[in-house]
Queue: 2 jobs
Job 1
Amino acid sequence: MIKKCLFPAAGYGTRFLPATKAIPKEMLPVLTKPLLQYGVEEAIEAGLNTMAIVTGRGKRAIEDHFDISYELEHQIKGTSKEHYLTEIREVIGKCTFSYTRQIEMKGLGHAILSGETLIGNEPFAVILADDLCDNTQGNGVLSQMIEVYKKYQCSIVAIEEIPKEHTNKYGVIAGNEIESGLFMVKDMVEKPEPQDAPSNMAIIGRYILTPDIFDIIRQTKPGKGGEIQITDALLTQAKKGMVLGFKFQGKRFDCGSVDGFVEATNYFYTKDKING
Ligand code: G1P
């Protein structure tokens, strides 16, 4: 079964400068929790216990976050503030973390390939932490995808319908619906202009990938923006075998943009208030 989750986290976060000058964008908090921790919690909820993080220069805060801070523990032990650490302590206790660095920024496909050394020859999940998801009913997005994987044992991408004018911000798929909300991918294009988009079904940052994807990425030529795109590699995989697009249940926030980040913050703030 799937045990490992890869987190590409080497990007510069230029849209959040100057905040991301010294802080990794994955560490920006929605309320009091960094984006990456939301992703790790979603992976744990889906039954995964091995987090493989692809980092880059200037990302050491990520490693420190998923570790014990002895000084802090010592300072607040036995005080009324100790409960603030409960959640992160639980996360650290439930999984292991390993890291590798992406040396050059050559795109998402390349970032995923950089993680091969941490993943090996087994199927794995990928979470892009700046797509923040919340399960409005029942299971988290990754958990839903694992159920689909159990049945079909192939690569799966999470999809969402978006306004057609936004297709140039996403990978876009087209395919045949084989079950309600489940599409066999026939076409997949990275960030097409609306007039060239094969549909309005956008890929969001949740993937399950079978390990043959690594060899395919190695053979994938740079595509959109001169970068090695996972979307292009997945189209090759779809043509050779099968890739599925899965319309998930739940809410997704694009925390890679300031608007989405503010929306997520308001949403989780309101949710927290309601739940006390
Ligand atoms: C990446 C992928 C794109 C996908 C998106 C989801 O783009 O390349 O196919 O739709 O993530 O967030 P990025 O947002 O990193 O530019």
Job 2
Amino acid sequence: MTTSLTVDHEELQAAKEYVRHVYAQVKERNPHESEFHQAVKEIFLSLVPVFAKHPIYMKSGILQRLVEPERMINFRVSWVDDLGNVQVNRGFRVQFNSAIGPFKGGLRFHPTVNSSIIKFLGFEQIFKNSLTGQPIGGGKGGSDFDPKGKSDAEIMRFCQSFMSELGRYIGPDTDVPAGDIGVGAREIGYLFGQYKKMQGSYHAGVLTGKGLSYGGSLARTEATGYGTVYFVEEMLKDKGLQFHGSTVVVSGSGNVSIYAMEKAVQLGAKVVACSDSNGYIYDEKGLNLDTIKLLKEVGRKRLSEYVHAHPEAEYNEGSYGIWSVPCDIALPCATQNEIDEEAAKLLIKNNVKAVGEGANMPSTLEAIDVFLNNGILFGPAKAANAGGVAVSALEMAQNSARMPWTFEEVDTKLHGIMKNIYKNSIEAAEEYGEPGNLVVGANIAGFLKVADAMLTQGIL
Ligand code: NDP
Ligand code: 2IT
């Protein structure tokens, strides 16, 4: 990690020792939580120069406190499937840090969900939310429930059961969940309905990502994907590059991926490949986004069916293969650790110039090192995908004001927020001796605001 700062060697050693010590403690206290360890390690490595320059953070135990969630809720979710069988899933909510605002973060429904996944996502969310400049703390939740192949009625019964337990722990000024993998407008609707019934009163701001007819914000659906492209646009601009005329690969074909593709195309790029968990589609002339939307947003179908409508395109089994498609810009928008060292090297071999993370932690630590060491423009998740939660906070503002804004108003604010995140991250990287390193810059800029709030609020 960085040593190029004007701090005493001794202070740097003390900072490294502090970080090493707390990281060892995290691994010991949270065994078998490899995703959580990974997210913590990435942040910790970036923060060494901060502790060397400002030992007050070490003295006040900021790191030990940051890595311990304020509250972790685990609960049983029982529900009855269409055949009359009882099903039991696990529900989670981590209320990680509320130093700068109510806990805020999505809910993920996916069979791989466990406490490690929820804690890595919640930990990332603390710094991401801080970067947006809005008053929102960090939280995350979800379930190992698999929405694939379930009927609407099953989804509804599951969501009602999930909320009947989670409902007592959340509220517009306490904790505000939203969507993530497997949780979109349909699920938020069922969750909101159940919360409203339980409360007996209307608290619009308890969830975000709501439908437009009952308190949702225009542009929330588009926000994460658009925001990622706005962020990457800033990275490119600094190097005299642009989306216009470039070839783009976007993994996933869900909410983030679809709107990242849409904005990239609007800016004049050609999107040649996207994926789902089974495989990827490729067309060197560019994909048809309307067909993808119809398949995934409306039909909830597999991407393999794309080639029925477009025989000129090819479908390949295995989502990992997407990283062998040559491109100028890669936007991983599916899930964690989808780009490993080998995939990163393959992208570089094929001349990738920029990578922007729409998903949470899609690149392994080794892959990030490969990108940075090869001079690839790299936009880390907590900065590049912050547009979703940023517009969620704008949705909360509209709910409080009981006044909806136009699409253009929200989109303009989103664009401004993404530009600011880029600027603040670049400036922090410069100030702490790692010019151009957005990983270090975003981690430091996100950390400082939360840490200073924690310092002023006493030992909690
Ligand atoms: P969706 O459920 O809408 O879409 C997820 C997409 O990723 C689907 O195409 C899915 O394929 C694919 N996918 C999921 N898991 C895997 C896997 N294990 N391997 C390969 N492909 C997989 O989720 P979102 O678009 O909302 O989320 C995508 C990523 O973006 C996640 O990392 C999420 O945390 C992050 N994110 C989301 C935000 C939001 O506002 N929604 C905000 C910021 C980040 P299939 O259809 O086969 O399941
Ligand atoms: O990872 C994320 O930032 C999200 N899934 C969105 C969270 C939110 O509260 O909108």
